[in-house]
Amino acid sequence: MSSSSTETSDTHLLADSYQRVRDFSEQIAAPLSAEDCMAQSMPDTSPTRWHLAHTTWFFETFILGSQPGYKAFDEQFSFLFNSYYNSLGEQFPRSQRGLISRPGLKRTWEYRRHVDQLLLELLRSDKLPESLRHPLEVGLNHEQQHQELMLTDVKHLLSCNPLYPAYQSNPFADTEASANRWFDFDGGIVDIGHPGSGFAYDNELPHHQTLLQNFSIAAQPVTCGQFIDFINDDGYKRPDHWLSAGWSTVQQQNWTAPLYWRKQDNQWMQFTLAGLVPVDPDWSVSHVSYFEADAFARWSGARLPTEFEWEHASHQASSGHFADRLIKKGLAIHPTGSVTANDDGPANMFGGVWEWTSSSYEAYPGYKPPAGALGEYNGKFMCNQYVLRGGSVATSSDHIRKTYRNFFPADTRWQFSGLRLAR
Which of 238, 354, 360, 422 has CA 20 to 30 A from 30's CA? Predict the structure, then answer.
């Protein structure tokens, strides 16, 4: 095959990937009303309509904007839908995105159609400059990140409604409890970070080596049943298990259980994307902060793994559930993913819950952020955050990899975040 025909094939594959990712965002939004798509339930979340517009702005700005003669769909959108790229101009305040009632949902769909048509024409004409291939791949992965946020944000939004409405009503429960086992790993020098084949974010680089001590890691994530034991032992009332900042947060926020849990008739209930359901003790506990994860680990006589221990152990791990598979079946409502047994290594490390690690989010040795605006994507957030690994039930399957580094502040609870113990 000639080099030109190979490039053509690659470009057409990119076109197919672009169409698939963009279509999936629309599939996520399909069960929502226009009112659902506008509301913002807290400063950390964004309206669905904003996610749909912002991901479109990304492609327009970084791909179409570099094409000769391109005219922006609406010049005002660069202010409304720029998230945090200071080098590209001023942004509308994140905490007030729910106040942007115009452009409306119809105009947002028009914006997406406009950008999609032009970008697909560019890809299918085989005229995409090589310099734009990486920004396009970043854009596709960026939209997949926002697809997960669309689900977590709308879950938080619907949880604020006293009627506890369901995002989708299809029941889905596929849980299997596994024994509380541990896997031992020898210490030594191990490889960490993305090896360089395939897509990775800059914060997964460079590939390097680090020294680990001998450690053990739990066979499964902590379950709801185990967390109930922590609650029943006054886990939220005893400061000796908590970091000082965590205990202050517990007092200020009046935390008594994971987010979305509530007691009804002496039974724990949990708000899910299917509405309010009884807490299943075999589900992985989800929507807990780093503070809660760390306190549970201390109460258990264990600790959280470092991100390097987690990555090393993940090479023997099995997979979990993934949102893109579930939504296509109309089943994207399971709150955490299932726990399954695995005799060869830790279970359910991918696609169940994001697992908190004890590692602060910081640069790998030799890290250099990319030049230009894309250099603002990850590096500037390396402060006051902790790393989570593994992906969740809301993460697309082809967006998950062993080296992926998610990160959030220690009090974050609205993501599908859980924990796995180490010692």
Answer: 354
CA–CA dist 291, 358 (Å, integer): 10
CATH of the domain at 67: 1.20.120
Same domain? 277 vs 203: yes
Query: E-strand spans in 32-106?
Result: none
**Angle at Cα 236 formed by Cα 232 and Cα 240, nearest 5°?**
110
Task: Report the distance separating Cα 401 and Cα 227, nearest Å.
Answer: 27
- Give the pLDDT confidence of 142-191 residue by residue, as tens digits: 999 999 999 999 999 999 999 999 998 764 443 444 557 999 999 999 99
Give the CA angle between residues 92, 144, 412 to the nearest 5°. Answer: 65
- pLDDT (0 to 100) of residue 180: 77
pTM recorded for the entire structure:
0.92
User: What's the first-to-final CA gap in the chain, in angstroms?
Assistant: 53
- In this structure, the answer to whether residues 272 and 209 fall within a common structural domain is yes
Quick one: which of 19, 18, 40, 37 has its CA closest to 28?
37
Dist. CA 189–CA 212, nearest whole Å? 6
- DSSP, collapsed to helix, strand or coil, labels residue 275 as strand
